[in-house]
Amino acid sequence: MSELRTGRQKYYNLFSHFYDLFIKVHSHNYGEETRRFLVASAQLTNKQHPRVLDVCCGTGSVVLAFSKQFSEIPAIGYDFSLGMLQKAREKDVADKTTFINGDAARLSFADDSFDVVCCSHALYELKNQVRTDALIEMKRVVKPDGLVLIMEHEVPDNPLIKILFYIRMLSMGPKDSREFVKQGISPFEKIFPHVSLSHSQSGKSKLIVCRKE
């Protein structure tokens, strides 16, 4: 593992102690709405024993929302930061969710393994080629009739929240992160044959829905 990669892991391990508070301030209480929207968009209600993978799961808020809504599904949170995963495990009071340490660009699963693969507000933090490799991996592990759901930020209107937003971009994202957020669905159309765009009710986040077939 490169020195840069190890340095980023240490950064996220440290940041895990403050991450949820930072997100609460940044999302301005829209986090719960966003998670409900993402879970509903997965369309799992009539699926038999669906499997869900949350890539770059952080402290687990999204994957735990899936586990809460669908108590019998095998849900997996996947992140390269042990600190983030430890916080996620502490939240999993029902002990129903599996958390795995690994690299988003090299997912440790067989082809066509999951009904839903999601990644919430994290892709912009990956470097350009790593981001592309991660999307290719998500396409590989999702089932032919499954969905890859990518939730990303819209640029906030509130001046204070916008400043926090760009601070996070500068501190956690690569140089092209702002450009990536502004590109809409074009980076996804290069990888997936079917891509659509929708927004959360508040308009704070956009959801890119990708299908491999």
If classified by CATH, what would the architecture be? 3-Layer(aba) Sandwich
Strand numbers in spatial order across the main sheet: 3-2-1-4-5-7-6
SS class: alpha/beta
- Give the rounded overall mean pLDDT: 86
Beta-strand fraction estimate: 15-25%
CATH third-tier fold name: Rossmann fold
Largest sheet: 7 strands, mixed
The radius of gyration over CA amounts to: 16 Å
Which H/E pattern describes the elements? HHHEHEHEEHEHHHEE
Cα-to-Cα separation, first versus last residue: 34 Å
Envelope shape: globular
Secondary structure tally: strands:
7
- Runs in which pLDDT lies below 50 for 5 or more consecutive residues are none
- How many helices? 9
Percent of residues in helices comes to 40-55%
Say which CATH homologous superfamily is assigned.
Answer: Vaccinia Virus protein VP39
CATH class: Alpha Beta
Quickly describe the structure.
The protein contains 9 helices and 7 strands, in the order H-H-H-E-H-E-H-E-E-H-E-H-H-H-E-E. By secondary structure, it is α/β, with parallel strands linked by helices. Strand 2, helix 5 and strand 3 form a beta-alpha-beta unit.
Question: Would you kindly provide a written description of the structure presented here, covering whatever features stand out?
Answer:
This protein is an alpha/beta fold. The protein has one domain (3-211): Vaccinia Virus protein VP39 (Rossmann fold). 42% of the residues lie in helices and 21% in strands. The protein has helices at residues 3-15, 19-27, 31-41, 61-69, 82-91, 128-141, 159-172, 177-182, 186-189, and strands at 52-55, 75-79, 98-101, 114-120, 142-153, 194-199, 205-211. It has a seven-stranded mixed beta sheet with strand order 3-2-1-4-5-7-6. Helix 4 links the parallel strand 1 and strand 2. The model has no long low-confidence stretch (mean pLDDT 86).
